[in-house]
TrEMBL record:
Protein name, entry field: Adenosine 3'-phospho 5'-phosphosulfate transporter 2
GO molecular function, one term: 3'-phosphoadenosine 5'-phosphosulfate transmembrane transporter activity
Pfam family, one: UAA
UniProt keywords, alphabetically: Membrane, Transmembrane, Transmembrane helix, Transport
Amino acid sequence: APIQTYAVIALFTLGTMGLSNAAVMRLNYPTHMMFKSCKLIPVMIGSMLILGKRYNMYDVLACLCMTIGLIFFTLADSQVQPEFDLLGVWLVCCALVADAVIGNVQEKALKEYKPSNSEMILFSYSIGAVYLLVYDSIFGTMQEAFWLWWAYPIKSYVLTMIYAFAGYLGVNCVLNLVRHFGALIAVTVTTFRKTITIILSFIAFTKPFTFQYLWSGAIVAFGIYLNAYGQNQKSIENYTRSIYNRLLMKFRRRSGVYHSPPEQV
């Protein structure tokens, strides 16, 4: 892929991380998670604008159901009410727009130029590291990071390597999803993992269960069903029709045997 494509991906990747971290400083946890759960909507709009895709009614309804369900699901155990700071809301909205651009530009590059995952990760994050180095050098934040590494060299190095390796595995999986299924499905999976994380937390930790988990989880499940139905509408309808015809034939056979007159010997 052209180096300009990787430069754009790197810029927006750095932008979404920086803007999201800056938004956390101004928004409390419920507000931040509420906006982050809406990631599906800008990605769908971005794929329509960047890739020229068209979605049916089931896809739109699935996106809305999953967004609403995830908002209430992630906020079910929060004891703090959302607080809206105008600058914080603006920052997190810009982060969501950057997220939408990243996924769709990646999908376009993967389908048009067919680069390997390793190539895209290498160039995107290397260019992003250069962007970050220039920013830190200009605004003087590099010094704080340097002294942190100086104070805890082994711990900082080990944790950074673990974080980098785990991040590589995660990005590699996301790129495979984007390559084979598109940006919207990839973001759907990465967003739905929040629900899985909360469900697993019930197993690992003792947490109070509220009814909000149940009905918000049902909304998410309904959204997933609508998404699957919209993607495979014809095959699902044919399968359902075949099952219905089989059951109808069995019923008619049984009814015919039951009502048939006895044979005379």
